[in-house]
User: Fold this.
Amino acid sequence: MGAQKKGATARVSEDQEELARNPLQAILLADSFATTFRPITLERPKVLLPLVNIPMIDYTLAWLESAGVEEVFVFCCAHSKQVIDYLESSQWSSQPNFSVTTIESHNSISAGDALRLIYERNVIHGDFVLISGDTVSNMSLTQVLQEHKERRKKDANAIMTMVIKKSKPSPITQQSRLGTDELFMAINPVTKQLLCYEDKAEHSKGFISLDKTLIADNPSIILHNDKQDCYIDVCSQEVLSLFTDNFDYQHLRRHFVKGLLVDDIMGYKIFTHEIHSSYAARIDNFRSYDTISKDIIQRWTYPFVPDILCGSSAIKVERQGAYRASDVTLSRSAHIGSFTFIGQGTKIGNDTKISHSVVGEGCTIGSNVTIEGSYIWNNVTIEDGCQLRHAIVCDGVIMRSGAVLQPGVILSFKVVVGQQFVVPAYSKVSLLQQPTQQDSDEELEYADNTSGTGELRSDKLNGDIATDLSETAYELGTGGVGYIWSVFEGAQDEEWKHSVAPIPTDKLVKLMLDKDEDEEQLTQDGNVLSASGELKADSDDNGSEDDDNADSRDDYGFFEKEVEATFLRAVHENVKVDHAVLEVNALRLSYNMASVDCAGAIFYSMMKLAVESPHHSASELHRNAADIITKWQKLLKSFLHDIDEEIEVILKFEEMCLESAKEFAALFPQILHLLYDKEILQEDAILRWADEKEGADESDKVFLKSSEKFVQWLKEAEEEDEDD
Amino acid sequence: MDFQVVVLAGGNSKNLTPLISKDVPKPLLSVANRPLLYYVLHQLRQSNLKDLIVVVEGEDAALHVGSWISKTFVDGLHVEIAAVPEDIGTAGALRAISHHLTAKDILVVSGDLVSDVPPGAVAATHRRHDAAVTAMLCSVPVSGSLESGSSGGKDKTKKPGRYNIIGLDPCKQFLLHIATGSEIEKDSRLQKHILHAVGQMEIRSDLMDAHMYAFKRTVLQEVLDQKDTFRSLKQDVVPYLVRSQLKSEALLNGISQAEENGNEKLSSPNNQVLDSKILANASTPSFHELYSMEMEPDDSAQTRKTHKCCAYIASSSSYCVRLNSIQAFMDINRDVTGDADHLLSDTSSDCDNIIGPSPKLGSKTTVGPHCMLGEGSEMGDKCQVKRSVIGRHCRIGSHVKIVNSVVMNHVTIGDGCIIQGSVVCSNVQLQERVVLKDCLVGAGFVVTMGEYKGESLARKEK
Assistant:
């Protein structure tokens, strides 16, 4: 990595005149505008949370510095004071050739707002790197910057280059090892242009849709399911002005990227750059916190690992990835397992076992404690006999003897867990009460109000902890302090997904079963879909030509199904006739059908319902049909404007009697009579139908014959009328 | 090779009237002076695939085709002719002859394919992967004449047409998605579970399904049996197999891939174990095996059944066109006499040189390059032939100009005729000073003096 650093600086000197004008700039968003790290983020900004004992933002800044960035604008919003104070006191304020400037805002609620504010400040003068303060990476920016610049020279619309990395999501949970949802990206393999970005793909749908124009424009597209978005973007200045132009853009990906991809008027393009050997990941949720911590301990992020970042020789790396600060007080019988970090000034008692965990500075851990896969921050007191599995324990927490943390527990700052108390799995415990009004859009953290109220409350809490203690004592056992946050509705099922704890086996089993079921359905769906293909007349070997007739027939099939569904809904939910008429009309318009088709389809649905409702004899069936026709005649009539449509109904009925509902065959004349009585069919229609059928084949005249008497009667009646 | 070949030589395509008729069924349509079917059979013979069933629609056509095959391919090919009713589709045709199929694998070729892609290579790919189906894909042909000839000049700027949308795995070995017909005009719907299993899918719209498939016989027969609504191989059977490749229905018998590989079942569906197992196997050639390994969590012993759908992608330099339109007919005639003339260089019994053995050319008559002149044809004085095919025993008068055209056998052309971009079928008589531009003249028609443009002239069939 030293070499890489030199490489970057060498390049800086190469393009000196260019860079003299434009030092490489970066925008670092020190606010994730999300709530995934609550309750911890109510008290401390996410970027300052320790990641293997070092605040996240330090990883990001150290990487930016090494990658040749010279000017960083840190945008702080939630807890901006804390971020600014930290940066001022840290090494970053006094680096040569690396300036860190903070931009403070109190009313930004999204990345979009942040970028709009930065645009107003007018501090960005060229291409810049856009990242958030929770990114850990060791990639070299040289290549991606160069690619970006070259593309820009050729095409001014290439305004952004996204960094991606291969990472195949788990086949069972469909989430990446960072706990993010699966992501589908369509990329042109030659130009690397991003064509489609789908991160919130509906799980219920078994397929991904690609727009036909994309396929028309690109002879070859690679659709990726195995790539991870690193949230490292090289952007041109236009990106900022685009955010200003589109004031409704909030989220970088969901609004901005998708917005650009959909918008073909401006023609802005986004490209991707895949990294292969270097590391890049963003801490998006507790699971990625866990994963990335482990990656750091296993030195995938070298040189950004604790022993080097700390600079001093205070931390030694021992065998099997055990990191130990110099002045740890360790009992002889304590057992420190592999991939574990123990911070400075920590005391560990007898027979305590710690593995795959991070223990911060100044902690006191008693005897017979078991710590597994957990993250214990600074100045935590854990008394004898406690057990911690896959938990995050923040600064100043006290665990009384015998307390147990089940997997996935988060203990926020200064929480006290009472003796022998078992904190149930996935609990989030904080001294602060859960904010009562949950915003409907949970993605957006209204940073201003949370930071304000958060601080306020903690002040109050610090003031009179005694009163709170009595209130909450029973929540965390005797002597415990803190509120267990209730998981709000809907998220309950999802809790395990983003937790630090590995996904429990029973969940996996359930998921796999669900998935199989889904697929079962899927294959069936597929068959339904392809029915169109199956029905399609294939007039000869040269089947590639479309048959318009077949197509419209399919359409009619779909239309009929939709109408049937609408009708059934109307029946079951007692929808008013007028509404049903409206719905059918809407369907008619969307499928581009005539009202003749509506009449046919509605009649079909009615008759089908009659057949499907329970009946034992022909007369019962007749009664069913009569009931339905009586009840819904108005619906049917509203589509029977002229004789042609009425004839269509008769023809449809004939067709049904022959094919789908043969039971009606015997009842044909009766139903016909019924329809006549209900004034659904006029006699003209019936007579015309009879006339038309007169010339048909014998086989086609079955129903005409069966209703001969009725027709005869009609004719006579008509003649009588005429006589009158 | 235990391969049986089915040549689907049916289809009295309406697109090709008036070139084909009752007397000239499509397989016998003359392309560069030899029947269309010859090209396929010749390639099969070259690949040493000799066990053939030629399926023809209608008894009459079967007789015609049969007699031609027995004349031409007396040696070397074992050909059975099967007649099937008309209009039952390609799947229907296969269903009708299903009981004749006995070999382990079946190669199905369309009879109107003019290609230099060796069918043997497709068969070999199929065998190598032990696939359920292998489809041959080729680059989309560039339609229209290359020169700004009278035909096709207007759409010079158009993009190559799209015939299929095809999804391939990163190694371009497996077929993951196929869309044909009207589906390609809609937004593509790609199945997620296949994508999950493979990770990435390349979607190509510049490939064409050339209608040459290798099937595992058992699979083909079961699908044809079970899905009696399937009419077309291209639009129903192949898409169905591709769609269900990871969810092979039990009916596609055979041993599941996992068992074949001797993979042990994983008793605990621990994520890490699975992951590591999958990672450890990352070098296994097929994602199908990986997928089938993801075990059912409860101990139901059932593993996932998968079958492989492979693709054989012809190199972009190879020639592969289906004759299914007049335009394709013109293109093929042009190409076979021009760029793709290697399709003709062989030792067949009815071999033609580019210019037949005994032409009688009048004085100052020129025959340009990329032309073909059948044996026994005579031409008068001061004729010009450019980029055209002229059949056998034609009598052509003086001052005749033939450009970008196809003239079949036994055609009489009077003095001073000009033929451009047209097809003149056998036994046609053109009287003096006929001018044909972009015309189709059906067999046996007599064209009187005059100028014709873009017309289709044919006798009324009774």
Remarks:
- Residues 144-159, 250-285, 295-302, 346-353 of chain B have pLDDT under 50 and may be disordered.
